[in-house]
Amino acid sequence: MYHFLPLAEKKLLRREYRIRFATVVLATLSFLVVLGGAFLLPSWFLADIKEQTVEKRMEIVQNAMAKKQDQQLNLVLENTKRELKLLRTGEDFLPFRGVLEAIIDNKTFGVSLQKFSFGRISVEGDMAVIVQGVSRDRDALVNFRKNLEREKMFTRVDLPIASLAKGRDAEFNIELTAVTPKQ
Question: What is the CA radius of gyration of the chain?
Answer without folding.
Answer: 45
